[in-house]
């Protein structure tokens, strides 16, 4: 066996599980590394505590003097836990988190008076010297730098010996350079819009919170094996590799018990999550071999997004201790399932009502139907933008593959609710008769709670499905920052609710309709208008692609095509109206995303070319030489009869040559196309060229390589194989 593979496999075989024993009960340690309500009460003065609470609950500003007091308490708390450094923790548009650590420790210029210092200034604002974060041209690096600003709605936490302060990252001119700033604005927009609509039903509602419960899927691969693959190291996925004899067809992984090594990893990970206040709850195997899932209890969306970003960091760090590498890529292995991150989403009032949970009384059902139908309408109006919000080079591999939602956005609501909508639609025009009203409220609508209880028919192929008391956005990629999808979803729902309220108010104020009738009337129109987005069938089928086209739904299979919708007039107007992002901010994001797409494909192209030429071809030649030598020997022994005796070897020699030739020509052509692409001037043109002229070579090159893997002596093959990557426990 090749030395690289041999070493990697030997290392893996030697591994003993890193034991991990939880010391305390989960509930006892939960959030102990978070500056949460409990620690704030303990370490802050009454004024400082109230200041933070007002900021969290009512969005009040914290003045500088108060910030000094808060910083003082936060520092005391952190020092009591052995913390030495602090950092502003933020989420730049690169998909990962960023931090720059500063020590609390300070001395005066002559080295005297050493003290631990941390004031309101350091808490509230920092310049991260981050001129190399992507900014899409907003932040001219010569002019001004961006700064990070404290987000008091997400509590500070300790990781290792560092106090991490969640922050937004904005330019000096106020434009958002990160994921969090637009998300906070979108959450504010949906709060205002939904609260106004809630007042139709309950005057006491003062605040509506968007909730998010994500489900993180991932692959866990032995570190030595992962490190032996240049493609995994450089791109997070395998660019080649023949599928192993056994894949996921037996479903034995999904129902199997979690291997000890993995279980120890999960236990330590959960322990770390508990300390950080991330309420993880379920852990289980996923469909593909070595694929797993972790899900928390849902939380307020901003906090949930922070927790998911933090979790992804923590997962990688804990994995190192257990000699694993976590793959967040949406499709790390060909032929087995990819990974997603379902985003379960709902709206909750400060009076404790889940607005997407069918109520017990007719009146609360009208409220449920209002939010339910408006959500559907929002998705219908902005389906292209929804698709754009989840578009990345890596997610393209998953969308439309036969285990993932298609690139077409549609909404699944289940049979029972379909019937409820049909019944509502059937009500004759104009004012509702008293009988109709009672009928709707009691006989049809009133039945929702019961029928939903056995709503087991959850269509797994739908990208956006109603699952009893929430919508589940399933097309989000496993490596994504949820903020992108959540900013979009909450924005479109906010806009829809604003429009809905306007329509209802017109009917009430100008047409003198009763409020209930007006609501019913507007909803009924929506039901008629939104039929094309509702789909209950098999989203994986070819028939759906044809049907969706007839319905006028978009089907953007690639990221460059999908992203276009971000900068359409409609999207720009939406984000502008809601003050979520101005035109510059949206255009900058578009720029960053198409550029990132081009870069990712560029890197994959380079790595694939390199592996094909420097691993696969030399190995194939070496094996071919062995065959040639063998044929020569046979000729020596058998003379002119050798040809029939060496028949198979001769075929192999030819076959190997033809694949080598295939690889060389295709790699050469791909390089030519990359050269063309690199000469293009705009990021958009480059992304298109990489998508349509460079990427198509990947499959061709891969096919030749994978065929060679089957032909060449296993001893000689340098690349760790699928069966080793996927089935080593
Ligand atoms: P599954 O979809 O795997 O069958 P569940 O339906 O039990 O699992 O829930 C999946 C996720 O939905 C969990 O992470 C949970 O926290 C989240 N969830 C449940 N209710 C809500 C809600 N009202 N808002 C947001 N997320 C929710
Ligand atoms: Mg789910």
Write the layout of secondary structure elements.
Elements: H1 3-14, H2 26-29, H3 37-43, H4 46-58, H5 64-80, E1 85-89, E2 101-103, E3 105-106, E4 115-116, H6 120-124, E5 125-126, E6 147-150, E7 157-159, E8 162-170, H7 180-198, E9 208-222, H8 223-227, H9 230-235, H10 252-255, H11 260-275, E10 280-285, E11 291-296, E12 299-300, H12 301-321, E13 324-327, E14 341-349, H13 362-381, H14 383-388, H15 393-396, E15 411-412, H16 415-425, H17 434-444, H18 448-453, E16 464-466, E17 471-473, H19 482-509, H20 515-529, H21 542-550, H22 559-563, H23 569-577, H24 583-638, H25 642-645, H26 647-679, H27 683-694, H28 696-711, H29 722-727
Parallel strand pairs: 1-8, 15-16
Antiparallel strand pairs: 1-2, 3-4, 5-6, 6-8, 7-8, 9-11, 9-12, 9-13, 9-14, 10-11, 14-17, 16-17
Helix pairs in contact: 4-5, 7-19, 11-12, 13-19, 13-20, 16-20, 19-20, 24-26, 24-27, 24-28, 26-27, 26-28
The protein binds adenosine-5'-diphosphate and magnesium ion.
Magnesium ion binds next to loops.
Count of beta strands: 17
Low-confidence stretches at least 5 residues in length (pLDDT < 50)? 442-457
> Approximately how much beta-strand content do the residues carry?
5-15%
Q: What shape does the CA trace take?
A: globular
Total helices: the number is 29
**The biggest beta sheet, please?**
9 strands, mixed
Q: Could you report the average pLDDT, rounded to the nearest whole number?
A: 88
Radius of gyration (Å): 29 Å
Would you tell me the structural class of the helices and strands?
alpha+beta
Give the names of the bound compounds.
adenosine-5'-diphosphate, magnesium ion
Helix share, percent: 40-55%
**What is the rounded distance between the termini?**
20 Å
Domain GS catalytic: 179-616
Family: Belongs to the glutamine synthetase family.
Domain GS beta-grasp: 84-174
Protein name: Glutamine synthetase type III
